Amino acid sequence: MSSLWLSDNNFFNNINIKHELNDNLNTDVCIIGGGIFGVTCGYYLSKLGFKVVILEKDFIASKTTRSHYW
């Protein structure tokens, strides 16, 4: 069994993903952690008009959210 949000190839199509932070960013909200909670918070805050940046040290949705326990 795998995560439904990872099985959908279109999930991350509208997200601007940078692999390294090399410059300064202007943002209203900075979320540290790109798991399901961080991405969900970022999504809803962006819908409210906030400029959101999500920082993740590895890959978005690559740890607990993606774990296969079944």
Short overview:
The chain has 2 helices and 2 strands. The protein has 70 residues and is of the alpha+beta class.
| Elements, N to C (H/E) | HEHE
DSSP summary, beta strand count: 2
Low-confidence stretches: none
What is the straight-line distance between the termini?
6 Å
Class inferred from helices and paired strands: alpha+beta
Radius of gyration: 13 Å
| Largest pleated sheet | 2 strands, parallel
Record the strand order, biggest sheet.
1-2
How many domain units? Answer: 1
What is the 3D shape?
Answer: globular
Mean pLDDT: 76
What percent of residues are in strands?
5-15%
Task: Output the number of helix runs.
Answer: 2
What percentage of residues falls in helices of 4 or more residues? 10-25%
Describe it.
This protein is of the alpha+beta class. It has helices at 4-7, 36-47; strands at residues 29-32, 52-55. It has one domain (4-66). A two-stranded parallel sheet has the order 1-2. It is globular. 7% of the residues are buried.
Keywords:
70 residues, alpha+beta, two-stranded parallel ribbon
